[in-house]
Amino acid sequence: MLWSKTLIPTTREVPADSEIISHQLMVRAGLIRRISAGVYDWLPLGWKSLMKVNAIIRHHMNAIGAQEIHMPALLPADLWRQTGRYSDYGPLLFKVKDRRNSEMILGPTHEECVTELVRAYITSYRQLPLTLYQIQSKFRDETRPRNGLLRVREFFMKDAYSFHPSLESLTQTYNDMFKAYVNIFAQCGVPAIAVEAESGPIGGDSSHEFICPCDAGEDVIVQAEDGTYCANLERAVPAEAGQKSFADAPAIAPEPFTTVETPHATSIESVCTLLKITPQQMIKTMVYQRVGAPDAPPVVACVRGDHEVNESKLRRLVGPVELADEDAARSKGFAIGYVGPHVANSIGVTLVIDADALMVTGATTGANAPFLHVTNFSFAARIDPQKAGAPIVADIRNVAPGDRSASGSPLKFSKGIELGHVFKLGTKYTDALGAVFADEKQVNHSMIMGCYGIGPGRILVGAIETGHDVDGIIWPMNIAPYEVVITPIKFEGNVATAATELYEKLKALGVDVLLDDRDQRPGVKFKDADLIGIPLRVVVGDKGLSAGQLELKMRSKKEPSLIALDGAAELLADMVKTLRAIK
RNA sequence: CGGGGCGUGGCGCAGCCUGGCUAGCGCGCUUGACUGGGGGUCAAGAGGUCGCAGGUUCAAAUCCUGUCGCCCCGACCA
Q1: A215 falls within a domain
Q2: Can you give the CATH number for the domain in which A232 is found?
Q3: What pLDDT score was predicted for residue A50?
């Protein structure tokens, strides 16, 4: 491609509405343009990279026998009502009405649609397993789109869905997918580590996320320093968290259970400062309400003062809950800011106690009255199981610095971008939609599903977050919009002829090449070439030509080198092939 | 949804508090000349209903009200 014939609107200035480096560079290099919050145009350079990512994904999906299909973005709302997700998805779902007033949605994901499809055609175990995939736009009405392509309302997603007659079959495909994902990210040249993630309905080791480690990421991952454990913070389990029940609460005779005045000290920190104690000596008591049923008995969660409630874990135990509305909770008798676990003795709640919190004795916690805390609290002494119901004891906290893995190795924390997710779904959708198959004995069973997503746009974000310098993007060869850029010092005379000749030869050799034929000063061309990050740059200049030489510079390297004009195209084509192969 | 901030040529901003000449600056763009290995210089230009609507005023980019849009923090996020 000739630079003058395409659209590469580079800018020197950082766009005002961007925060993270990948967003800034994608706009400055002319890859994308925002048209509305979380909605972007893909310009030629960005689109070319995205198509390369998609081609890599396709290759690896096809290699494990998945079949590509295309499904509509516009879906009937009824289908989503049948699985309950019309309401579960809530305001995240884009809803539209057609002229007949029928409700439609813009698909945020396609489990319903693909299951409906498979239900229609698959009736026998002989037709299974089957894996279908799509790469297409998905829509989510995010509360807060942000960070360029990291969180958007319309985005591309590769989603694969597999259907199985047995768990063994599902596991086989899951493992194939897992390996395909490793290969996809490697071939794209973007770092990705597999971590254990929310496991869903089947439990166990049945869900992994692939995370690109970088500070711009929104996910927190937990890794054991010895490399034996890797999990999303949502899921990470502290090694010490054994199976405990309320009966395990230490029955130490408590010191006098006293009430102390703590005016305006509603946080763990402020109470600690006031009473000169440490957070480890406190019990934090959080009030949650049932999602969609704010009048149902609340859930009260207790963790040690230095710990945080992990809402994912809590939800797995008690169902969908959210932090209670403060005013509503106060009207029910909760002294928000001064709640203690023993509130369960007087108000009907579901009490959930973290295993670590349970073991604290002589704790300080809220007195269930404004401006008051109590000291020398212990669960065994102060919770009356008759009145408080049967308290649930479980791991409901986030792991924290200081925790160790099962192997005894310290846990470290880092941020990352979720690039992909493989997931054993089970029969949630096939049950709801009646997607059944007949086995050898003509007995019907719901098909067992797996689903496997990748965000191609996020692969670009991850590649840029982890591959850039002060001058711009440094693309990996396989997803670079062009593999070689030719930069003539001046696009005239011999130089233009030589540059054009090299350009034609490289094209003929199957290299994706960009020729900067603009009438611009060399400095402008160099700056732009660096900004858009093409892996190989060839400079054609008078001085070099008279010596029969060209200058070659790798974007990732600091120093250029000289190559002979004769055979330059072949040499470059070889280099490109070599760099494509590096995984 | 809560908190904070911003809407002024394509981009980045000043002007607003304290209303008043023709609304400025940098980048980019056009034309010409010089220049030609890291966003060059000079000259001459084009380009803006100051987000939108209403109000106050002799007079509104500036003050008031409403509204729309966007960004950041939080909440939320298969």
Answers
A1: yes
A2: 3.30.930.10
A3: 97
User: Residue A536 and residue A237: Cα distance in Å, rounded?
Assistant: 45
Give Cβ neighbours of residue A432 (< 8 Å, ≥ 6 apart): A82, A83, A84
CA of A34 to C1' of B51 (A): 17
Judgement on whether residues A130 and A81 belong to the same structural domain of the protein? yes
Looking at the structure, do residues A220 and A327 belong to the same domain, yes or no?
Answer: no
- Distance of alpha carbon A285 from alpha carbon A367, whole angstroms: 11
Establish if A495 belongs to a structural domain.
Answer: yes
Task: Quote the domain boundaries for residue A535.
Answer: 482-581
Q: What is the pLDDT of residue A241?
A: 61
Q: What does the pLDDT average to over A337-366? A: 91
d(CA A351, CA A301): 6
Residues A24 and A158 in one domain: yes
Tokens 């199957």 found at: A510
- Residues A271, A174, single domain; the answer is no
Residues A350, A311 share a domain: yes
3-state secondary structure labels for all residues of A305-354: CCCCECHHHHHHHHCCEEECCHHHHHHCCCCCCCCCHHHHHCCCCEEEEE
Residue nearest to nucleotide B71 (CA to C1'): A17
Instruction: Look at chain A and report how many structural domains it folds into.
Output: 3
Chain segment A509-567, per-residue pLDDT in tens:
999 999 999 999 999 999 999 999 999 999 999 999 999 999 999 999 999 999 999 99
Residue A202 has a pLDDT of 56
A476 confidence band (pLDDT: 50, 70, 90): very high
Q: Which nucleotide is nearest to A39 (CA to C1')?
A: B70
Using the structure, give the distance in angstroms from the CA atom of A170 to the C1' atom of B17, rounded to a whole number.
Answer: 67
Q: Give ipTM to 2 decimals.
A: 0.93
* A457 & A496 share domain: no
pLDDT band of residue A178 (cuts 50, 70, 90) is very high
Are residues A211 and A159 part of one domain?
A: yes
| Nearest nucleotide relative to A454: CA against C1' | B78
- Provide the 10 A C-beta neighbour count for residue A230: 18
Here the tokens at position A513 are 């090449």
Q: Is residue A529 part of a domain?
A: yes
CATH number, residue A521: 3.40.50.800
Residue A469 lies in a domain: no
**Nucleotides of strand B under 7 angstroms from a protein beta carbon:** 1-2, 11-13, 26-28, 35-40, 69-78
A37 closest-nt by C1' vs CA: B70
Residue with tokens 């490793």: A182
DSSP string, A370-383: TTEEEEEE-HHHH-
Span CA (A533) to C1' (B3), Å = 39
Are residues A181 and A101 both part of a single domain? yes
